[in-house]
């Protein structure tokens, strides 16, 4: 039979049970939940809302332009022509994919913002009528 190791201070509790007793897991989960942003009415700037899709669009456009340059090099340079012909379309497609994903992401965020505003308005109406 295996004897569990004793803690350094001599108490009978194992380190795992001490961790469970002193842990504030419940309060931590409530504070870090994603639904918390729905309840807070702190307004965010346009940059905070749209910075991710703007970055994706910018990177996609840069990669697309790089692919155009590489592809056009295959027309002008004779040395390493096969490499340019292989890499150019790959960068073109990757850049176009990122560009389109970012451009589609922006209307999705706008729609979510409108839905959030509607739900906050309905919540305030509900609380107004039912808290009387």
How does this structure look, described?
Its main location: membrane. The chain crosses the membrane at residues 54-78, 90-109. It is a multi-pass membrane protein. It is found in: Membrane. InterPro entries: PIRT (IPR028068). With 132 residues, the chain is mainly α. The protein has a domain at 51-107. It is 76% helix and 0% strand. It contains five helices and no strands. The protein has helices spanning 15-22, 25-31, 36-39, 46-76, 81-130. α4 (46-76) runs antiparallel to α5. The longest helix has 50 residues, at 81-130. It is elongated and about 80 Å long. It starts with 14 loop residues before the first helix and ends with a helix. Residues 27-39 have low confidence and may be disordered.
List the helices and strands and how they pair.
Elements: H1 15-22, H2 25-31, H3 36-39, H4 46-76, H5 81-130
Helix pairs in contact: 4-5
Distance between the terminal alpha carbons, to the nearest Å? 65 Å
Task: Count every beta strand, where a strand is a DSSP E run of 2 or more residues.
Answer: 0
Q: What global shape is seen?
A: elongated
Count the DSSP helices: 5
InterPro entries: PIRT
Pfam family, one: PIRT
Transmembrane segments: 54-78, 90-109
Protein name: PIRT protein
Summarize, please.
This protein has 132 residues and is mainly alpha-helical. The chain contains five helices and no strands.
List keywords for this structure.
elongated; mainly alpha; 5 helices; phosphatidylinositol bisphosphate binding
């Amino acid at each position: 039979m295996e004897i569990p190791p004793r803690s350094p201070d001599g108490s009978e509790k194992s380190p795992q049970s001490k961790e469970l007793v002193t842990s504030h897991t419940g309060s931590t989960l409530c504070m870090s939940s994603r639904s918390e942003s729905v309840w807070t009415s702190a307004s965010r700037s346009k940059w905070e809302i749209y910075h991710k899709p703007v970055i994706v669009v910018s990177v996609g456009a840069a990669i697309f332009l790089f692919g155009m340059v590489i592809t056009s090099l295959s027309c002008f340079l004779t040395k390493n022509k096969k490499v340019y012909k292989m890499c150019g379309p790959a960068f073109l497609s990757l850049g176009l994919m990122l560009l389109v994903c970012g451009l589609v992401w922006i209307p999705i965020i706008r729609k979510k913002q409108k839905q959030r505003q509607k739900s906050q308005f309905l919540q305030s109406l509900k609380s107004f009528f039912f808290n009387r």
